[in-house]
Design a protein that fits this description.
Number of domains: 1
Number of helices: 4
Distance between the termini: 39 Å
Structural class: alpha+beta
CATH class: Alpha Beta
CATH superfamily: 7,8-Dihydro-6-hydroxymethylpterin-pyrophosphokinase HPPK
Order of helices and strands: EHEEEHEEEHHE
CATH topology: Alpha-Beta Plaits
Strand content: 25-35%
Radius of gyration: 15 Å
Helix content: 25-40%
Largest sheet: 6 strands, antiparallel
Length: 171
């Protein structure tokens, strides 16, 4: 059920490591703004090494703040449609994680906690991933994780992830 008079604040994480990475992310932005809400702010782009699988292709990552009238279940279904439209290959049970043209994750939805077979909010591993925390810290460093009760800045300072995540300018 969508409540049309309540604006929800959502933080999304984007990643792409094959094809025209920046173009794929920007196309996802356009599709989101056309159908799902308004992007309020966007982090810089970061390049990162793949986490959880081996690939020769670096990821391009960023985060956005989105205002939407969609509820969490409606939003995830819309994001999955966008991933499909941009030719995202899903998790391969034989190989695990695979290269992808686009990956869109809901990190936070207001301060709501959702545990559903299709969706977990807050994202269950976001605090372990520099490629999420660095761009997220640009746009909401003082946002408090509703489960861990720490700010994004605190989670970034405590993160044990040592993977390479570098700010990119000019991609």
């Amino acid at each position: 059920m969508t409540i049309k008079n309540i604006v929800n604040k959502v933080f999304l994480s984007f990643g792409a490591n094959i094809g025209n990475r920046r173009k794929n992310i920007e196309l996802a932005f356009e599709l989101i703004q056309k159908n799902d809400g308004k992007i309020i702010q966007t982090s810089h782009f970061y390049e990162s090494t793949p986490l959880g699988f081996d690939s020769a292709h670096l990821f391009l990552n960023c985060c956005v703040e989105l205002e939407t009238y969609l509820n969490p279940q409606e939003l995830i279904l819309q994001l999955l449609k966008i991933e499909s439209a941009l030719k995202r290959q899903r998790f391969d049970p034989n190989r695990g994680y695979v290269d992808r043209t686009i990956d869109i994750d809901i990190i936070f939805y207001n301060d709501v906690i959702v545990e559903h077979s299709l969706l977990t909010i807050p994202h269950p591993r976001m605090q372990e991933r520099l490629f999420v925390l660095k761009p997220l810290s640009e746009i909401c460093p003082d946002f408090v994780h509703p489960v861990l009760k720490k700010t994004i800045a605190e989670l970034l300072a405590e993160c044990a992830d040592v993977s390479k995540v570098e700010l990119t300018l000019g991609l």
